[in-house]
Amino acid sequence: MKYKLEVKSELKSLSVISDFLSESIKKYGITKMSVPDVLLAVDEACTNVIKHSYKKEEDGVIILQCYVSEDKFIVKIKDWGKPFEITSIQKPDLKADYRKRKIGGLGVYLMNEIMDEIEYSFNKKKGNILTMKKSIRGGT
Amino acid sequence: MSIEIDVKNYDNTKVVSIKGRIDANTTQDIEEKIEVLLAEEKYNLVADMSGVSFVASAGLRVFLSTLKKTKSCSGNFKLVGLTEDVRKVFDMTGFTNLFEIHSSIEEAISSF
After folding, report:
1. Is A47 on the interface with B (CB under 8 A)?
2. What 3 state SS string does chain B have?
3. What is the average pLDDT value for chain A, to the nearest integer?
4. Confidence category of residue A139, pLDDT binned at 50, 70, 90
5. Which of B21, B60, B68 minimises the CB distance to A99?
């Protein structure tokens, strides 16, 4: 069973996305995966889509799909905005003094830390698709 | 989902109590409240996070920015009441080492 949600590319959609994911995870009966972590990773991904792919234009569309396959909880986030290459974002210096800590760059870092796998593809017709996977067996 | 922000005055310290979810949508409200305090030259700030269930990196950005601004004016921005989930995000990002995190508002106020 796959669950699907379509929302507008506005920041108000973030809480709707979070509720959708929480409900979907509950319906799957997943108990060992860290749900707060996954909600955070998806929130960061969707924030990037809204702010960077759609540049906060509110008439864009974001489609989320989630399902379980081979002991993994999979979330696919699709948009038709400007491709946002997450691999180009530098990892923040976590040990830097507060004066030297940069204000941005944490969202992508958190996504990579939390999720087990992240794949990104771009197709002009199909759109940008970010696929994130997390083991449902827990452990980290 | 909205966020609730309440500001209370304790001698020379302002306690900002936040309830709800801190994400890229709700941080603007927090930023606005803090900007007002900074404009009033209130640089001893405490954030009561006991009602915060979720913090995204947008929230961390506002916290770091506030820390930098208050410290540059010989003040500080301290935190109280981090939940387990929020604490985990702080640990993952190294933010636990950047902030003074207290176990009670009273303790945070008296530490200034």
Report:
1. yes
2. CCCEEEEEEECCEEEEEEEEEECCCCHHHHHHHHHHHHHCCCCEEEEEEEEEEEECHHHHHHHHHHHHHHHHCCCEEEEECCCHHHHHHHHHCCHHHCCCEECCHHHHHHCC
3. 91
4. low
5. B68
